[in-house]
Design goal:
Two copies of one chain form a homodimer. With 201 residues, chain A is mainly alpha-helical. The model of chain A is unreliable at 180-201 (pLDDT under 50). Chain A folds into two domains: 3-83, Orthogonal Bundle (Arc Repressor Mutant, subunit A), CATH 1.10.10; 95-176. Chain A has helices at 3-13, 18-26, 37-49, 73-84, 95-106, 111-136, 144-176, and strands at 16-17, 53-55, 68-71. Chain A has a three-stranded antiparallel beta sheet. In chain A, helix 1 packs across helix 4, helix 2 (18-26) packs across helix 3 and helix 6 (111-136) packs antiparallel against helix 7 (144-176). At the A-B interface, helix 1, helix 4, helix 5, helix 6 and helix 7 of A face helix 1, helix 4, helix 5, helix 6 and helix 7 of B. The first copy, chain A, binds a DNA duplex (28 and 28 nucleotides) through helix 2 and helix 3. Chains A, B: Residues 7-80 form the Transcription regulator PadR N-terminal domain. Chains A, B: Pfam families: PadR, Vir_act_alpha_C.
Chain lengths: 201, 201
DNA sequence: TAAACCATGTAACATGTTACATGATTTT
DNA sequence: AAAATCATGTAACATGTTACATGGTTTA
């Protein structure tokens, strides 16, 4: 139940149309809550039906026409309620760690190359966040209203730093692995399938 | 498309029934890929229909009867393929960061108490992982087959350490916040709803 | 033998993903 | 006026969640 509240937050920051929201989800908000345009349109419909937002009465309703929404008092109240309500942390889901665990059983295959690729992607994301920090939160600018936004951005920066370093560590560990190939102990049925030709980083 | 591969990995480590799998997902595997028993039974049915696993012909099929599965050669091959295939990192989704961002708009409400609670939950999880590390990976035991499994556990330990520290930082930041109350700049419609009575940590 | 628990499962729904459809506006 | 792009939307499906149903086994 987070997408509607992500949309309410975005609309409170600035009333927008579906496509504008989609673009903002590709940037700031999407950094910790992504959504496609189909999800957003679907959710905008529900929020409007529930009386939490309304379409700005600017112009026409036709199909190819832009339609902007703003948050109604009931929507703001719902967002405040949700923000203050306790929530348990959801268990973390990470396909890459799952693959490493699988690699311990069926062999490492070409996974090392993908680890390197992920490392680079995280490093790039880190650079992007740091650029945003330089631009939006220079040392002078330290108003209380910005503190929370900056704190959230710091989480993004710290997380990408974390993963970059962890992947460095993992790659170092791989170099110490014997032949970097099939380490098994299980029921032994099929051949390890492909294994050579790593795709470079 | 990760749940079937999580199940294949678990079954290769040790053939199991649905409930046994559920229990193992509550422990080791579930630490980075959780699943409920309904998901697991549903997926076991699909994997069997696809010829990737089969029920051990031990005994009866009746309703309240235990039914164990093992991985077939095709299943092992599929897991090896999936493990080696490149995958893009999925964008990270974090409701707590979303709530902090919302708090920047509608006010902090009682969110501080929940931050403290999350901090304690992460600290507890960290302690659990460290206990597992002590038990399963003592310094003597350093066989190559264990390296990958240990690496994955380290990720869990490092992540919980990360969040514990980050939440400490966030809470320190909160103490510097003016009245620790409603910081707004937007369309101003509704009252900030509830705000007082934090629920202690 | 009733209650508690073990084990597998069904059903309904919420959320997220992928592919495609359609009208309006801008560019060539 | 054809092509590209903008903007909103439908449809089908995959995955995840919540509530409940059913038969068997153990324990009070």
């Amino acid at each position: 139940m987070s997408l509607p509240h992500a949309i309410l937050t975005a609309l409170l920051e600035k009333p927008s149309s579906g496509l504008e929201l989609t673009r903002r989800f590709d940037r700031s908000i999407g950094y910790f809550w992504s959504a496609t345009h189909q999800q957003i349109y679907r959710e905008l419909g529900k929020l409007e039906a529930d009386g939490l937002i309304r379409a700005l009465p600017a112009e026409q309703p036709a199909r190819g026409q832009k339609k902007s929404y703003e948050v109604l008092p009931a929507g703001r109240a719902e967002l405040a309620r949700w923000t203050a309500a306790p929530q348990d942390p959801k268990p973390h889901r990470d396909p890459l760690l799952l693959r490493l665990r699988a690699a311990a059983v069926v062999g490492t295959g070409g996974i090392e190359a993908d680890l390197r690729r992920h490392r680079e992607l995280h490093a790039r994301q880190l650079a992007e966040y740091q650029e945003i920090e330089r631009r939006d939160f220079p040392p002078e600018r330290n108003a209380p209203e910005d503190r929370l936004r900056h704190l959230v951005l710091r989480a993004g920066i710290d997380l990408e730093t974390f993963w970059t370093r962890w992947l460095d560590h993992a790659l170092a560990e791989f170099e110490q692995l014997p032949g970097a190939e099939s380490a098994d102990a299980g029921s032994a049925d099929a051949p390890p399938a492909e294994s050579r030709h790593a795709e470079g980083a």
